[in-house]
Structure prediction request, 165 residues.
Amino acid sequence: MKNVLRVVVRAFVNSVVAAQLMPRGVRYRLLRAWGVDTRSKEIHPRFVFSSPNVSIGENTTINWCVLFEAGARITIGDNCGIGFYSQLITTTHDVGPSARRMGAEKSLPITIGDGTWVGVNVIIQPGVTIGEGCIIGAGSVVTSDCAPNGFYAGAPARRVKDLSD
Prediction:
């Protein structure tokens, strides 16, 4: 019964709360009531949360259609921007034997530092930490940590340019 309730609540959050017609202030209060630790009301519609294991800092904008696959904690700092259709994925699998390469599941946290801008359609892989003040270029796949104040782009994302503090 507990699992059924969890599924129903998640379906409510990802359909009704994520609806375009849901007023932003109501969306904010319902996400907080579910357990999302958000201090920002700038969460746009059509998101998907796999769980409330997410922290969103002040003055951070979550654009349309962002996926939060939160098997482990996702922490987004203050003054960040997360672009349309971005995916924050915390769950992966160990490599198994040749008979079944998809081994045991594991979840690793994602941390995004203050002031970071994640462009449109970016994928952030499990266990990644993005330092403060970074820009992640549109369409990038972030597979490893990003040092602060850098512009990262590509698949996999690489530091392309240093940014001033």
In short: The mean pLDDT is 97. The first helix runs from residue 2 to 17. DSSP finds two helices and 18 strands in the chain. Helices lie at 2-17, 24-34.
